[in-house]
Amino acid sequence: MSTEPVIIHTDGGCTPNPGPGGWGAVLRQGDHLREMFGGEPTATTNNRMELTAPIMALEALTRPVTVHLHTDSTYVRSGITQWVAGWEKNGWRTASKQPVKNVDLWQRLKAACERHEVEWFWVKGHSGVPDNELADVLATKGMVEAMGGAG
After folding, report:
1. Residue 30 pLDDT > 80
2. Torsional sign, CA 125, 130, 131, 134
3. What is the CATH number of the domain that holds 132?
């Protein structure tokens, strides 16, 4: 693995929720910068877009690396660091025996994490963290373009 971590900031959202959505990711390693975004023109949810952003960022990495992944979603951070192992052990059911929501994305995120050494960080949204703010802008751009607008 490379000694210098890849720093990733991700964001996702919908307007309204549920509704059309977008996701954005900012990837940095040393002097290298990559901006990614995309969206769904049909009804999706904030949580699905928040999950899609780190999936797309991690899947874009071409070799195993150390990753510092920043998200403003406690749902994503808690899910991947605390809940997913129990869900998988319980056949992708919650503690109350209900099916896990967004199971397709949780399984994909778990698989994407397994290639890398990922450390998760929560960052307060809209708090002036430059790459988090940029991820938010990219998520909005993804939503607008998915809806057929000019980004």
Report:
1. yes
2. positive
3. 3.30.420.10
Within a domain: 95: yes
Has 31 been annotated as catalytic? no
Ligand-binding site membership of 114 (annotated): no
Q: Which of 38, 39, 40, 72 is flagged as catalytic?
A: 72
Residue 1, pLDDT > 90, answer: no
Among candidate residues 11, 21, 131, 142, the one labeled active-site is: 11
Sign of CA dihedral 124, 147, 104, 119: negative
Q: What is the mean pLDDT of residues 60-85?
A: 97
Active site residue 104: no
Q: How far apart are CA 121 and CA 119, in angstroms?
A: 7
**Residue 131 assigned ligand-binding role:** no
Asked whether residue 1 is assigned to any structural domain, the reply reads: no
In a domain, 145, yes or no: yes
Structural domain total, the chain: 1
